[in-house]
Amino acid sequence: MREHELYPFVCEWLGRFLRSKFRSVRHVWSEDTSRSSVATFLERHNLTSHVPWWATLDIAVDVTGAVLLTTRNGRKILRLAIVEVKTHAINLRDLSQVIGYAKVVLPHFAFLISPKGWSESLHRLIRDFKRADVLEYAPNRKVIVAKWDTISQSVRMGEMLMP
Predict the structure, then answer these.
(1) Are 79 and 67 in contact (CB under 8 A)?
(2) Residue 156: pLDDT above 90?
(3) Alpha-carbon span 112 to 3, nearest angstrom
(4) pTM for the whole thing?
(5) What is the count of structural domains for the chain?
(6) Which of 3, 26, 38, 82 is buried deepest, with most CB atoms within 10 A?
(7) In a domain, 163, yes or no
(8) How far apart are alpha carbons 147 and 122 in whole angstroms?
(9) CATH code of the domain in which 129 resides
């Protein structure tokens, strides 16, 4: 199995995930950005006014999602989500890649997923040595490392690496 074969399913899942998190939202976008960039995604969907640094987001994240929320006073707020897909067991190098992307993009959600789950060393670092700090990319925001279920084509809540 190759990464790009998972992208359509990950896009569908991310759209469902965002709709479940933001139930009253009207606009949800989720697409493969592995051959373009987050900047192009924002431009294509006329969302650049919500991210002042959009032109600097020349990052080819595998899947990018967005939700446009409207507050009670009519103000529009954009929530971004990024997903990096791997087909091998997720390791520290993969986590470092996503942390870098997330520090630049500043998404509301950042996922790192693989059908093979994560490596033993990553598991031990986070769970045994309680180093959840390595998942943090912004205050109160952490990368979600998760196992992709190829049968349900989704991330299962019990299949996430948490401290």
Answers:
(1) yes
(2) no
(3) 12
(4) 0.96
(5) 1
(6) 82
(7) no
(8) 13
(9) 3.40.1350
